[in-house]
Design a protein that fits this description.
Radius of gyration: 19 Å
Number of strands: 0
Number of domains: 1
Structural class: mainly alpha
Order of helices and strands: HHHHHH
Low-confidence stretches: none
Number of helices: 6
Helix content: over 70%
Length: 169
Amino acid sequence: MLPVTLGVTDGLLSALTLAAASLLGKGTEPSASLAGRIGCAALVTAAFTMFVADYAERRGRLVRAGRQLNLTVRGQLATTRLGKRALRRSCAAMMLAGLASFTGAGLPILLGVVLPGPPWVTVLLALSALAGLGAALAQTFAANPLRWAAAMGAGGVLVTWIGTVVHIA
């Protein structure tokens, strides 16, 4: 769940930050090329972040387990099959987060290009997706869906505003 949540959230926020000016009609026209470029940037950052965080967490658990088992060599468990399994699982999480981020970043922009209407409709799509994700997450851990949807939507609005200030694309 973490790789998908991180990836989709990162992708949507990347799209809102990097393409805010274009999506609000103050920059270049949104295009499939822009969707692909921002999707690729989001993929790389989410994949790298997910791998580093997940692998560090898994290796850390193996080191702590080795210490609790009174193994004589520090990190001994990390060099076993358990360490290789941790690496494989972190690679899987990395790929999942990267794909989710690419989709989260590229899809709203691509929909904005394909659907008729003004470019700012893409911002509404991305903000709606963030709010929907917040509500869905709240349902999974018995929180208030309205509060989570509002918080995620507000975060998206803030990031969009920052994107218009820095005016990247």
